[in-house]
Specification:
Blueprint: E1 7-10, H1 20-33, H2 41-47, H3 52-59, H4 68-83, H5 96-105, E2 109-113, H6 118-128, E3 136-138, H7 150-159, E4 166-170, H8 173-182, E5 185-189, H9 196-202, E6 206-208, H10 214-223
Parallel strand pairs: 1-2, 1-4, 2-3, 4-5, 5-6
Helix pairs in contact: 1-4, 3-4, 8-9
């Protein structure tokens, strides 16, 4: 493991891009296709970041599992149809592109760890013109769902970066818990889908208010020492 290389690993939905409206819309279509009442939008937002079947299972906790796969398949179909529409939009959060460029210029390796499928990640990268920016791409096709640490452990192995020099940046408790389990640093962003206090309880060492401050805060985090926000 390199003691000099640094790795910033980003969640996608709710951290890099604002996709909540499309996710809620696709999940609503999937529920209707399976004769289920519409899911509450706030409940859907709470499970963004999990792998699809795990997310559906949380939305249908009393179902024995027979419909989880059916709803997941219907969601995939609905989302593909949404993505094909001309008006489809999953914008980057303000300042994201500049922050990624600043980190890369400062020598950071960049990666993503997401509940999206690999096809979804590739579509996001193409849509926003990221090219080869992310040197490691961990998806729901490659590992167990968050908060299992496998995605981050695979990212560390692929890049040769020490855990102490890596940061998981995300907007959900799943991201923070995954970071803690993998023994990497955890930075919570406040513009996403889980409340800041929940991020702290789940293990966020710092909270970031906007992308303009992110590069400097990540340097502070890996160089330490910092006073962790999360209780011991």
């Amino acid at each position: 493991m390199s003691v000099s290389k640094r790795l910033a690993i980003f969640d996608v939905d709710g951290t890099l891009i604002d996709s909540q409206h499309n996710i809620v819309a696709a999940m609503t279509v999937a529920f209707r296709a399976n004769d289920l009442d519409d899911p509450r939008p706030e409940a859907v937002r709470r499970i963004i970041g999990l792998s699809l079947v795990d997310a559906v299972a949380r939305l249908l906790p009393d179902d024995e599992g027979g419909r989880h796969l059916a709803v997941a398949h219907a969601y995939k179909d609905a989302f593909l149809q949404l993505r094909a529409r001309r008006e489809h939009s999953e914008p980057l959060f303000p300042g994201a592109r500049a922050a990624l460029a600043a980190l890369q210029d400062d020598g950071w390796l960049l990666g993503v760890a997401t509940g999206k499928s690999r096809r979804g990640v590739e579509a996001m990268i193409a849509r926003h013109g990221f090219g080869e920016l992310f040197v490691t791409q961990q998806t729901a096709d490659d590992a167990p769902s968050k908060p299992h640490p496998a995605m981050l452990l695979q990212a560390l192995e692929e890049t040769g970066v020490a855990a102490s020099n890596a940061v998981m940046i995300g907007d959900t408790t799943f991201d923070m818990a995954m970071g803690r389990s993998a023994r990497v640093h955890a930075a919570g962003v406040v513009w996403g889908y889980h409340p800041p206090e929940d991020l702290v309880s789940a293990g966020a060492e710092i909270l970031v208010d906007n992308y303009d401050e992110l590069p400097a805060r990540l340097v502070e985090l890996v160089e330490g020492p910092v006073c962790a926000l999360a209780p011991s």
